[in-house]
Specification:
The complex is a heterodimer of chains A (about 240) and B (about 375). Helices cover about 35% and strands about 25% of the residues of chain A. By secondary structure, chain A is of the alpha/beta class. In chain A, the strands form two sheets. Chain A has a six-stranded mixed β-sheet with strand order 6-7-8-3-9-10, with helices on both faces. Chain A has a four-stranded antiparallel β-sheet with strand order 2-1-4-5, with helices on one face. In chain A, helix 3 packs across helix 4, helix 3 runs parallel beside helix 5 and helix 5 runs parallel beside helix 6. The two termini of chain A are about 35 Å apart. With about 375 residues, chain B is an alpha+beta fold. In chain B, the strands form two sheets. In chain B, strands 2-3-9-4-8-7 form a six-stranded mixed barrel. The chains are: A alpha/beta (about 240), B alpha+beta (about 375). At the A-B interface, helix 1, helix 2 and helix 3 of A face helix 1 and helix 11 of B.
């Protein structure tokens, strides 16, 4: 088993804008996510959670500090390499699902594989298998508009996992869902996303799902102010 | 991802319809206006199209176009015949004469008088028998469209019937007998065309000191029409032009001295501008509505080059379908109205220009939209 941490961040800082309008979103973040771990990032709005996962997912560049993802130094990567790195190694689950409305579920799920250059039939076969795994095999031809919110998020999860990424980042995956559906989605994520060698980072406000995490990192004002197992962090924050 | 791009496009019907309307409308109007423009210009040189066997046209040096007839002295015919490199030369009459119809009404007609010996410049689609009959006394050939419409005769039942062989007309009070029919190109003014011999045309025409409209000639074997024309000009001081050059002289005159190009040009420019505006605005709206999905694609590893390709494919498909629909409708209109006075000619050059205009529309459209796509930060997907 590869013992390299999925994410290793040291002293990460990120500031948007300059001069008097500058907003510092990250103020020296130290964080490590181990392979096979499910980490929740929690904190009030504007505390820097979204900026942090954007940096860790190689979408935003940080200003200072070191951020290694899957052993690769993100700061040293040129933009072109970062795009390829995201494509091959990272799965995304978005708060608003962001499923393309005119594509049936199986094509939405196949997108990451098509981006990798896989043939259409092979990508669709893998997408069908993934949809079956999230319990939507029968609805693979349905358009997103024909699915419930929970089903759409399951399709989004299938899309995030279909190319077997080693890091999955989820932004508020349950915030658009009712409690029962949110619980199902988290259970699904925990069951099929959390695998040996794969790290799972979830940004959430939803305290009802805290118990699914291996660890929780609490953030405030651009800093990690507490990190540990769910009961300890939940009681402290 | 090409299929994804097309599904994204066709999944949004209002976008597709809007863009197809924009491109199709522009392609249709440009094709229509262009075909009408070509058709109108083509009618100005109808006689030159119908007399392909006359390689050289000799005329007064001040002639600006084919209807700008400035009669020559008969002696010029002999001078042209004497030029080295000229195989033969013949007189040609072209004028507009009044025909009196049996019901007493008058109809202006284009009368073409051919050399009686050679009948050089005979009209198209006339049978040899009927052409030979032109040598009979008072004989004329009449164009079929004119014979069926503007020169139609009373049928005795209160209606009209097309002219028939043996019918008579009066041209400037002189009797003319129809001995046959020909098919000629439509003329700019839409008047019927009557062919006769040079001598008879002179009798039909009002007496003038000079009556020879043109001398038509052919180069001797081994001499080009251009070279023979150059020699005729040098020797006689007359303007001698190969048929093709005379055709372009006439076309250039109409382009320069009539409102045709400006009127039609305004229509073409408006079609282009309106088509571009509709297409670009619709496509920009489509891209704007899809920014979050494009952002998601970027986050998942789609490069700008891939998004450029996807956008280009979407725009190209709209362009090709819109162009096909526009040109198709234009062609249908032209075909449906082919028996009317509509001047309508589509050439490959016209289609190529139309295609170029459509290409320009979709390139402008795609470029305007791509700016938003290229500037899109993938991090936008994490903002709810």
């Amino acid at each position: 088993m590869d013992a390299t941490p999925v994410i290793e961040a040291r002293g990460l800082t990120k500031t948007f804008g300059s001069g008097p309008n500058a907003v510092t979103a990250l103020r020296g973040i130290d964080l490590q996510v181990e392979a096979g771990e499910l980490l929740l990032l929690v904190g009030p709005s504007g505390c820097g959670k979204t900026t942090l996962i954007s940096v860790m997912a190689a979408i935003l560049r940080h200003d200072q500090g070191r951020c290694q993802v899957l052993g690769a130094d993100l700061a040293a990567m040129p933009d072109r390499e970062r795009v390829a790195f995201r494509r091959d190694n990272i799965g995304f689950v978005f708060q608003a699902f962001n499923l393309i409305p005119s594509l049936p579920a199986r094509l939405n799920v196949a997108v990451p594989l098509l981006l990798q250059g896989r043939s259409h039939p092979a990508a669709l076969a893998a997408a069908d298998a993934m949809l079956a795994e999230v319990g939507l095999g029968e609805r693979r031809h349905a358009l997103p508009g024909q699915l419930s919110g929970g089903q759409q998020q399951r399709v989004a999860i299938a899309r995030a996992l279909v190319h077997q990424p080693r890091l999955v980042v989820c932004d508020e995956p349950t915030s658009a869902l009712d409690h029962a559906t949110g619980e199902q989605v988290m259970t699904l994520l925990r069951a099929i996303a959390r695998q040996p060698g794969r790290g799972l980072v979830i940004v959430t406000h939803d305290s009802r799902v805290f118990h699914h995490a291996d660890r929780i990192a609490a953030m405030d004002d651009g800093r990690v102010v507490g990190i540990g197992p769910p009961p300890a962090v939940a009681s402290a924050h | 991802m090409n299929r994804i791009a097309l599904l994204m496009l066709f999944g949004n019907r209002s976008t597709v319809v809007g863009m197809l309307l924009g491109v199709g409308f522009a392609a249709l109007l440009i094709a229509l206006q262009g075909a009408i423009f070509t058709g109108v210009l083509n009618r100005t040189v109808a006689l030159l199209h119908d007399t392909r066997g006359l390689p050289i046209w000799v005329m007064d040096p001040t002639v600006q176009y084919i209807d700008d007839v400035k009669p020559l002295d008969d002696a010029e015919l002999t001078r042209v015949r004497s030029v080295a490199g000229v195989a033969w030369a013949a007189p040609l009459y072209k004028g507009i004469l009044r025909a009196r119809l049996p019901d007493g009404s008058y109809q202006a007609c284009v009368v073409v008088g051919l050399d009686g010996a050679s009948l050089a410049g005979a009209p198209p689609e006339v049978t040899p028998d009927q052409l030979e009959a032109l040598r009979r006394p008072d004989a004329v050939l009449v164009d079929r469209v004119g014979a069926a419409a503007k020169l139609a005769q009373p049928d005795g039942r209160g209606g009209k019937r097309p002219l028939a062989i043996g019918d008579t007309l009066e041209l400037n009070d002189r009797r003319a007998v129809v001995v046959g029919f020909c098919s000629v190109s439509r003329t700019f003014t839409g008047q019927p065309t009557i062919y006769t011999t040079w001598d008879r045309a002179r009798q039909f025409a009002l007496r003038e000191r000079r009556q020879m409209s043109f001398v038509v000639a052919a180069p001797a074997p081994g001499t080009s029409a251009a070279e023979a024309a150059r020699r005729i000009t040098a020797t006689t001081g007359l303007l001698a032009l190969p048929r093709e050059d005379f055709l372009w002289l006439t076309v250039r005159y109409y382009l320069k001295n009539t409102p045709i190009p400006v009127n039609i040009g305004i229509g073409v420019v408006l079609a282009f501008v309106v088509g571009t505006a509709i297409t670009a605005l619709t496509f920009a709206g489509f891209v704007q509505n899809n920014l979050r999905y494009l952002g998601a694609l970027k986050a998942m590893g789609a490069t700008n080059a891939l998004l450029l390709r996807m956008t280009a494919i979407q725009a190209l498909v709209v362009g090709v379908v819109g162009f096909g629909a526009g040109v198709g409708v234009a062609s249908f209109i032209g075909h449906a109205l082919r028996r009317t006075e509509l001047a309508f000619i589509t050439t490959w050059q016209l289609l190529a220009l139309d295609g170029l205009a459509v290409l320009l529309i979709i390139v402008v459209t795609a470029l305007l939209s791509l700016r938003a796509v290229f500037r899109l930060e993938p991090a936008v997907v994490f903002r709810s």
